[in-house]
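User: Second chain of the day. Same drill as before.
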Amino acid sequence: MSKILVIGARGRAGRAAVAEARRRGHAVTEVARTPAAGQVIGDVTDADRIAELAVDHDAVIAAVYDGGADPAAFFPQAARALVDGLSKAGVGRLIWVGLASILPTADGTLLMDTPGYPQEGRSFFLAHQAVLDTFAASALDWVSVAPAGDFNHADPTRVGVYRIGTGDAGRLISYADFAIAVVDQVDHPAHHRAAIGVVV
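Assistant: Same format as last time:
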């Protein structure tokens, strides 16, 4: 059994990760900016708070988003705080819930650069890339796990399987199946210092 800190536990990906980790018998500490019952308060941009919460945990899952913040400021700040906080706490393994847009497609083109891909959120995409650049410059053992295309908001069914895939806007995965891939990177850490996409 591992002890896992889940930051962003009130969001859909975070809730799914909590449920999957508990299904496997792991001890989970849930963190949210505005916590519900059973959760603790924490801000992913606060390195000292991350360090305090992460002590004695085996791994951290970060599924974070702040709709009221400028992504170009929020995401890099969160990345720096995670690197600094986890270093202080002595926690080496971070699973980051990433973004399909910055995954390479089958021919190597980033999904966000493929013809017809919506560009309204490009600043958001680039902010996620800045996160990975920050992680890559650190000594942290991290992996970014993203849906290869998008989450299946219409069908929450847990199929129970997934595979690693390149960026493909047409592919969907439920939050429950995505969470299997996320928690697998705690239980069976096969990917290190890399970004992966997952599909069913």
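Residues 37 and 165 are 36 Å apart (CA to CA).

User: Great, on to the next one.
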